[in-house]
Automatic annotation (TrEMBL):
It catalyses: an acyl-CoA + a 1,2-diacyl-sn-glycerol = a triacyl-sn-glycerol + CoA; a long chain fatty alcohol + a fatty acyl-CoA = a long-chain alcohol wax ester + CoA. GO terms for biological process: triglyceride biosynthetic process. This is Uncharacterized protein. The lineage of its organism: Eukaryota, Viridiplantae, Streptophyta, Embryophyta, Tracheophyta. GO terms for molecular function: diacylglycerol O-acyltransferase activity; long-chain-alcohol O-fatty-acyltransferase activity; O-acyltransferase activity. In the N-terminal section; belongs to the long-chain O-acyltransferase family. Its main location: membrane. Residues 44-253 form the O-acyltransferase WSD1-like N-terminal domain. It comes from Brassica campestris (Field mustard).
Length: 424
């Protein structure tokens, strides 16, 4: 059986997007930091990884990129977990453990990784920070999976803290109510189709403009030449998820984009650069600006532009090859300013190899942007992770403060609107 499994894996080519993110210029890594509520046991992690992570074929295979007529593929190999687990000797009485974690993560991201082994590594840090008693910092090549797949992998390796024998569960999204009025349902569906067609035309036109010549407006985030932009500092901040939900439910808006809109505008103004329209005179004006931005984002969600983009990428590969796809992807990334992403985590306490998790933070390296904002959720916490270029944003904590402040301002505005509606 084992031999048959190796033959099958070896003959399966690398998926198109895994191959894309392993090409020169787009060599990307997912960075995951997990805080624990107790001291970490390296032996427990080594044993746990043997029984879980290695069951996934990609984590026990070497990525062969291929050359000439040889296509990229996954090559099975014998994995010694100890070669992938690093336990540095850290002074537990270190003066500033939070700063140490930031420096350690940033240095680890840009250290070379052995391509002759599966492209992942895990660092266990027995150091107490403001948010955890110990930490795990992992680096996974993007060809192994994206944020959603890695979160699913984490859940598969974890167990409920309340029930150590049970797997964590994800809460299913609530379905919208369906009206019983037939004629109104037909009108709604017709209107939905019209909006879908209109939004698709608009978003495809914008996408083609970006491919041809259009760039984002000039801001302090684009002050360096595009070829030299790269995040070289990673920080995170843990905030209340309930505060985020108050604003998100009121505005029905993606939380990463919502918070980035308010915070970067405030940060830009704080360094003397106007990043928001001049008609804004108060915080309520900024709040209204975010509402208008939501309309644009809603239009993009209700369109078939992603399907068009996927078809274009697939057609590019089939006709011109992967080098053309790489050029196309780098053109898109090179004409944008900020990378935004968010991944929903478990809504209940979980434990990883008998270590109760305190928080999960994630980011990505390898993109040509000066700012990457990634937000994850865990139980009642929202974790903001920033990847920044220090030459563009020399004080990322200052920007993070503005993110938190912008959230509180929007929360206060929502509460004031609710109070006004209730006549309080």
């Amino acid at each position: 059986m084992a031999i048959e499994k190796q033959v099958i894996v070896g003959e399966i080519p690398v998926s198109p997007f895994s191959r894309l993110f392993s090409m020169p210029g787009l060599d990307c890594f997912n960075i995951v930091t997990i805080g624990f509520k107790n001291e970490a046991s390296p032996s427990a992690f080594i044993e746990g990884l043997k029984n879980t992570l290695l069951n996934h074929p990609r984590f026990s295979c070497i990525l062969e990129t291929g050359s000439g007529e040889h296509k990229p593929r996954w090559i099975p190999t014998n994995v010694n977990v100890k070669d992938h687990v690093v336990v540095p000797n850290i002074d537990p009485t270190i003066e500033n453990p939070d700063q140490f974690l930031e420096d350690y993560t940033s240095n680890m991201v840009f250290s070379p990784i052995d391509v002759c082994k599966p492209l992942w590594e895990i660092h266990i840090l027995n150091i107490k920070t403001s948010d955890a008693e110990s930490l795990l910092v992992a680096r996974f090549h993007h060809s192994l999976g994206d944020g959603m797949s890695l979160m699913s992998l984490l859940l598969a390796c974890s167990r409920k803290t309340s029930d150590p024998g049970a797997l964590p569960t994800l809460v299913a999204q609530k379905k919208s109510k369906v009206t019983n009025v037939v004629w109104w349902s037909l009108v709604s569906r017709l209107w939905l189709i019209i909006k879908l067609m209109f939004n698709t035309v608009v978003e495809v036109f914008k996408f083609l403009l970006i491919l041809c010549s259009v760039r984002d407006n000039a801001t302090p985030l684009m002050e360096k030449p595009r070829a030299t932009l790269t995040p070289n500092k990673f920080i995170h901040r843990v905030i209340s998820l309930d505060d985020v939900k108050v604003v998100k439910n009121a505005m029905n808006m993606d939380l990463a984009k919502m918070m980035e809109k308010g915070s970067t505008s405030r940060w830009g103004n704080s360094i003397g650069y106007v990043m928001i329209p001049l008609w804004m005179k108060s915080e309520n004006d900024i709040f209204e600006y975010i509402r208008r931005s939501k309309t644009i984002m809603d239009r993009k969600k209700l369109s078939l532009e992603p399907l068009f983009s996927y078809t274009l990428f697939k057609l590019t590969v089939e006709v011109f090859g992967y080098k053309a796809l790489r050029t196309l992807a780098m053109r898109i990334f090179g004409r944008s300013t900020v990378v935004l992403s968010n991944v929903a985590g478990p809504t209940e306490e979980i434990s990883l190899f008998d270590h109760q998790i305190s928080y999960v933070a994630a980011s990505i390296s390898g993109f040509p942007q000066a700012l990457i904002v990634h937000i994850t959720s865990y139980v009642n916490k929202a974790i903001i992770n920033l990847g920044v270029d220090l030459d563009v944003i020399p004080d990322p904590h200052h920007l993070c403060d503005h993110i938190v402040e912008a959230l509180q301002i929007m929360k206060s505005a929502v509460e004031e609107e609710i109070s006004a509606d209730l006549g309080v």
